[in-house]
Amino acid sequence: MNLPENPLSDDLSRICDANAELWGELRGARLFLTGGTGFFGCWMLEALAAFNDKLGLQIDATILTRDADRFRRKAPHLAGNSAFHFVTGDVCEFELSGQKFDHVIHAATEASAELTENNPRQMISTIVGGTTRCLRFAAECGAKNFLLTSSGAIYGPQPPMLAHLSEDYTGGPDPLDRRNVYAEGKRVAEAECALAGAPGDLKIKIARCFAFVGPYLPLDAHFAIGNFIRDQLVGGPIRVRGDGTPVRSYMYAGDLVIWLFTILLRGRHLRAYNVGSEQAVTIAETARLVASSLAPAVEVEIEGNLNRAGAANVYVPSTQRAQHELGLRCEVPLRDAIRKTQAWYRTQGAYAESR
Fold it and tell me: How many domains does the chain have?
């Protein structure tokens, strides 16, 4: 029986071709991943499977998950891959004594608006405790490289005079605002990296991630672009809950995974790299772009009143460090990224009954 082609085949071929020589350094490697079943993690597993299938790298990965059965339902082709081994456990307390790994990628802890609102103490304790445990485990298992997926939220509000936030910006969120527990947790997680990085041979790399779009992105979470694609998939209208003036930028997930693996292998020790797109776009423009990029055409409704008094809410990175030091680029235009995401969800049958 012929198996159906992976709908991400074109993306995965591009990822493999992007830097096949660098990916060759993963030949025969053993990787340990947290957050391997989330948005970032699914893309990393897709890439690792492609590295094995297309480049013959024989990579072996162990993935920590809270619910292996749920992941099997979500991505059976990844859950059933013989190179992937799933271990159920808590990121703050897991035990894998005696096992050796070459690389540890800590991508757990979702930026959950619901958890921030309902249990902020759990949010910050999971971020900090999970990072501390993973750093200790990386040292115990003899890993050469450790990658932390941090967040651009650590910079706090972007000043109006800055079109792009660079890694040298030293601002920060208000620590007395409980809504900032995610950002403060990531700041402490990076501090834990600094403390763990002084002795030994473990090389610690930090990816400060901004906003993304692509297959596997949840369409029912607090990601505006995902909500807009969901609205389009169910026939519209696309609803903008606010006034549409906040400014964001979106990197396609296929570019994201190239950046993450490059930072893991080539990033400098205890150096942070912004990961995202520099193409600024307002939320209203994003909604209209989704509406105009995808068929059938749907209406856009902006529900909030325009607030002309306050400064614009901006969240856009400078990626000059990653570009100059690591040769990284955003290759997929936003319109194409939106179309790819919608097309993938259509192949999954998601929202088919709702349309």
Answer: 1
